[in-house]
Amino acid sequence: MKSLVLSSIVAVSILVCGMSEAQGLGVPYLGIRDVQESSAANSWESLYNGDTINVIGGVVTYTGMPPGKVKYRIVIQDPTQTEWAGIEVKQIGGTLNVNVGDKIDLSNVLVEESRATTYLVYDAGSSASVISGGNSITPTVIAPSLLGVGLISANPAAAEKYEGMIVRVEGVTVGDMGLGSHADLYTLGDGAGSCYASDYMNQDRLAANDYHANTAIGASFTAVEGILEQYQKTSSGYDYYQVLTRSSADFVPEPATMLILLSGGAVLLRRRKK
Ligand SMILES: [Ca+2]
Ligand SMILES: [Ca+2]
Q: pLDDT digit string (tens) for 52-63?
């Protein structure tokens, strides 16, 4: 009889646990990768789309209002993962006060898929805790050809695992400007292939300009870094990936460019002396 009562209690406990999971009463603790990782079979959408979850261990890689824009942006990345590691946090009725480099845990955030981008929605019912500050993220080096160019060029099979992550393209030159839905895209090519980049989130861009002062046709860089974003508006004929520079520091100048700048400075000095 005793063992029967005990097994009944166990059975009831299992049932209750099972029910709370099924009804979403227990909010799971997940890493960013758990939220982002997907496949073509799931249309590259989060398996937690529509769920309210907790997300632990994201390092803030961007926070703030881009110059001249109206949408506050926050992006976080898990430093322990090399793929599916980044995600944007969308504030709706909640205020998330964090700094770049903060490692944070988020509670009660909604997973949302909107136009091929995965978001964590931070609202009045969400909360955050800062675990530590001063953390950095090592950019993931990718070939521009992995992203490609073209108004309908998105290839999620190649690029979706880097959505929201800091990526780096190396040995690149600006080939063209004034492209894309907002005419603010430019191409970065390394000779083997090209990708799109944009400075619209760059904190060091003048609000009146579409581009950072470094961006000009023919300008070459040792590397350009930024957050990878997919821009999809298929009704208007757009679906592409773009690298979003965050500040002047995301442009790594070529040694040759530095020399030209230095010699130019010397020429100026000589002229002033005359
Ligand atoms: Ca995407
Ligand atoms: Ca995604």
A: 999 999 999 999
* 142, two tokens: 């990718």
Ligand 1 centroid, distance to 46 Cα (angstroms) = 10
- Catalogue all structural domains in the chain, each as residue range(s) with its CATH number: 27-132 (2.40.50.140), 140-257 (2.40.50)
> Cα of 71 to ligand 2 centre, how many Å?
19
Q: Give me 240's structure tokens.
A: 């592409």
How close is the Cα of 212 to the center of ligand 1, in Å? 25
**How far is Cα 17 from Cα 209, in angstroms, rounded to an integer?**
55
Distance from residue 261's CA to the centre of ligand 2 (Å): 41
Residues recorded for the chain: 274
DSSP one-letter string for 215-272: --TT-EEEEEEEEEEEEEEGGGTEEEEEEE--SGGGEEE-HHHHHHHHHHHHHHHHHH
Rounded to whole angstroms, the maximal C-alpha distance in the chain is 107
- Distance (Å, whole) CA 76 – CA 86: 6
Record the pTM. 0.85
What contacts 203, CB < 8 A, 6 or more positions away?
64, 66, 67, 246, 247
How far, in Å, is the centroid of ligand 2 from the Cα of 130? 24
Ion ligand 2 neighbours, Cβ < 5 Å: 118, 163
Measured in angstroms, how far is the CA atom of residue 89 from the centroid of ligand 2? 12
Q: How far is the CA of 139 from the centre of ligand 2 (A)?
A: 18
Residue 241: nearest ligand to its CA?
Answer: 1
Counting residues of the chain whose pLDDT is more than 70, the rounded percentage is 84
Nearest ligand atom owner, CA of 113: 2
Q: Which residues pair with 240 in a beta bridge?
A: 231
How far apart are the C-alpha atoms of 168 and 145, rounded to whole Å?
A: 12
